[in-house]
Amino acid sequence: MSKFHSIVSRRDFMKGLGLAGVGAAALTAPAFHDLDEVTSSDSASWKRAWWVKKQDEPSVELDWSQIKRYDHRLMAHSSYPHVQHIGKEKWLEAVAQGPIKTKERLGTPGWDIRSTALSGSQGVWTSDQMTRNDKMVGSDNGFKTPEQQGLPKWSGTPEEANRMMRAVILAYGANQLGVTHMGTGGDKHRNLIYTYSRTGPIGASTGDEWIDKWPPPPGYWRKIEMRDVAVGFEEPLDGVKDVVQVLPNADLWDMGIMIAMPREAWRVGNGVNSGSQISSWGNGMRYNIYHTSVQPGVKRFLRAIGYHAYGYSFPEFYGGLMPSEASGVMGGVAECARSSEIIINPEVGPTGGYFSILTDLPMSVDKPIDAGIFRFCHSCHKCADYCPSGSISKDADPDWEIPWQRWGYKVPSLTNNPGKKLFWSDMTTCRISYGYINACNQLCRGVCSFNVNNSAMIHELVHATASTTGLFNSFFYSMSKSFGYGPLDPDDWWAMADGLPARGTDSTAVSFSGGYKK
């Protein structure tokens, strides 16, 4: 009696697609009888498709004994670790090719004047006054605490707090929120907080100028410490203000925030090996939304109801206090992927931008998910096939060991943090390709088999099948190519752009509410 939209039986639907053999495997559990059962099956605070399952640990295996606090100055956008991996001469040779390759691309499809204008026009957010005044604990300009207002601070259950903050991040332009508790007494989740951030109040530690002068002086990074204090703060170091960021050694809740990015824009390339200024715009749009709306709004809202938020400090636009992908995975927003430096969301695929804000507001926590995404990545290597630098692993199975010797590094990898059983990506060749030679702008996201239009019924079927069995994964990988989900020509994007939804994203992709009910 089970129906899709109460019109055709599941078996008849599968037969109509010519996929009758898939039906039993795809739709084994749970047994829903109508759409009301589907939409009410998840928690009241976050309704998702039935095939997105919650569990205690992420779908990728973790070894918490190996996960130590990471020095974010050594991340993949930093020059210093790559020089240690492959040598200074080889690195600078690649860097020198960057301007030459960029000049060659100017005026070509995706790098023409209108595409360049689109990408460059969003850069105003980096000098926005509200952002420039932002510190780890936010700005108090115009926002009073409850005490200053003569009001009691907000109180409610952790579940109500979770639901409230989900509404807040949506109101300010983000799409999803997942919450992880960071307890005291050596809680393993605190090892996700960086030891150092890559940017300080003076500048960044990532440039070539620090290759032979490592580490840079204070002010080109911030040091993150945890102390027995009630409220976090920033303090000077060696005469430079706001270099040390102090977090309370008390219960905190990590809010993993996802902002959807335009699918089609991510797919726009310049030939086989390069991205485009259109895909660059799609990538950068999340930072515009987050730093001019979401983060200032969340920080001020929490201050106004009597709590504290700890997030990104100017001019740190990209890093924050911990890996935002870790927030997304532990909070159940997304799963790890074959490309080890991205995560994939069940609703928006790989085109989600992730951020993290810590707070002392007690909230109910969300569990990691298994929607079959990481299992699908075992069979699919579409991102690796398209990767112009061959940086993404094509191994059949994930591994605990980081294959730095196979990559030809002179020292163990500094950009990959152990403790995860992943398909490890070579982040040095990735950075050379992404930042200098090909400007591929993470083409792997654009061509991903999950970068599809979710409103099409066939794709909902694929998601549901992949979440219950990996038997048909290789078939679905081939099918994604048949549907034409690969690189997109820049002129085709401009032709369709005025028919796409606002910001190029479909808000209904992450909505499971048919309307407001009192």
UniProtKB/TrEMBL annotation:
Q: Which GO terms describe its molecular function?
A: 4 iron, 4 sulfur cluster binding; metal ion binding
What's the cofactor? corrinoid
Chief location category: membrane
The record's keywords, sorted A to Z, are: 4Fe-4S, Cell membrane, Iron, Iron-sulfur, Membrane, Metal-binding, Signal
| NCBIfam families in the record | RDH, TAT_signal_seq
The record's annotation in Pfam families points to: Dehalogenase
Q: Which SUPFAM superfamilies does UniProt cross-reference here?
A: 4Fe-4S ferredoxins
* Keyword Cell wall biogenesis/degradation attached: no
Q: Where's it found, cell-wise?
A: Cell membrane
Q: What is this protein called?
A: Reductive dehalogenase
Keyword Signal in annotation: yes
GO terms for cellular component: plasma membrane
